[in-house]
Amino acid sequence: MGNFEQFIGSFSFDGRLVEVDIICSIAHVRMLVKTKIINALEGKKIIAGLESILKDLKKGWKIPKEEDIHFAVEKELIRRIGLIGGKMHTARSRNDQVATDLRLYIKYAIKTIDKLLNNFQKILVKKASDNIDVVMPGFTHLQPAQPILAAHHILAYAQMMQRDKERLEDCYKRVDVLPLGSAALAGTSFKIDRQYSAKLLGFRSVSENSLDGVSDRDFAIEFVFCMSVISLHLTRFCEEIILWMNPEFNYITIDDKFTSGSSIMPQKRNPDCAEVIRGKSGRIFGDLIALLTIVKSLPLAYNRDLQEDKIPVFDAFDNVKMCLKVMNEMIETLKFIKENTLKSTEKGFIAATEIADYLAIQNVPFRTAHGIVKDIVLYCKKYSKTLNGLSIEEFNKFSQLFKKDIFKYLDAKNIADMKVSYGSTSKKSIIRQIGNIKRKLT
Q: Which one is catalytic: 89, 228, 262, 263?
């Protein structure tokens, strides 16, 4: 194959569509037979030839390279059954054929990612259940804020994965539209049955406008956007894993197989898998930008630019699939160091909000209570004290409303469990959250 053929060809990347291309062609031929556009004997011979190619592919045989996978399948079919194989292409164009193939592939990809997300949620729910008594600092601005249960933190990611699944489910509706029968751009003069083709291929509906049918790539853009958001969520979790493994935090351990040593510093274990997942996001975001740029400003209908749409789709899918598989395995090995997370709650005066709430319960305006507690924190800093190291006499210097029961508002475990609002970090709330996610999983 010469330089020009290589440049304009797409076999190097659209070859992975071979199975969906054959499935698409088998359905198209069945429709041609049903509508008497070709006779039953011809249809039977073409379908047998296509099925023989598919069977050989599943055994490991490689289809000979051509300009693209669609022409490769047709040429191989003609080689096997003769010129009658060319009748397969009646009443369709490569334009509606490739659009159908890509939709079939993305439907498969959505189902694959959905299963991985489902499995990830199961792992997160199990990890939350196992760590329901682990108390840790919650952060805002990466500064200690309020005590939370580790389970609450983990379940936040389970909620992100739920939204990712819902986004994919919604995306699937727009992928699940059959463009086959739009032909090159104007439809076809043959009396085809597009609804029958849709039924055979498992599509919910057929496209309403043939121009749009062959040129629409919104569904691909939306799919890669969904992959980008999943990747984004994984980067957030990976960033926290990286921080939590740092000796300054020392909140967790993960299995050594997800880390690597330093080439020069023998004491180090680097969270390489988490870092690579974090880094992959840049590539996946790039796939989205690439696809948006390919489609930008294209006049109707099909343009050869759209040949390049598959590379970002495949790349985003491959990388998110790989990241989710690694993430699932890595999180299964994650263990919290309970004593370290609890000890960390002693830093940063993270009981301050509870003290303000204590005063607010006694009818002190919250803004006034906020100012009183701010003064208490400044006092602690000045004299190198902690909030739970203050005596009741010291509390009373700032307000006579403080009684001895204030000390239960200073215990991190109590603080977490006192939260009663729906969706909060209390143990009771966590149990409810776990139950709700389990119901969605089933």
A: 262
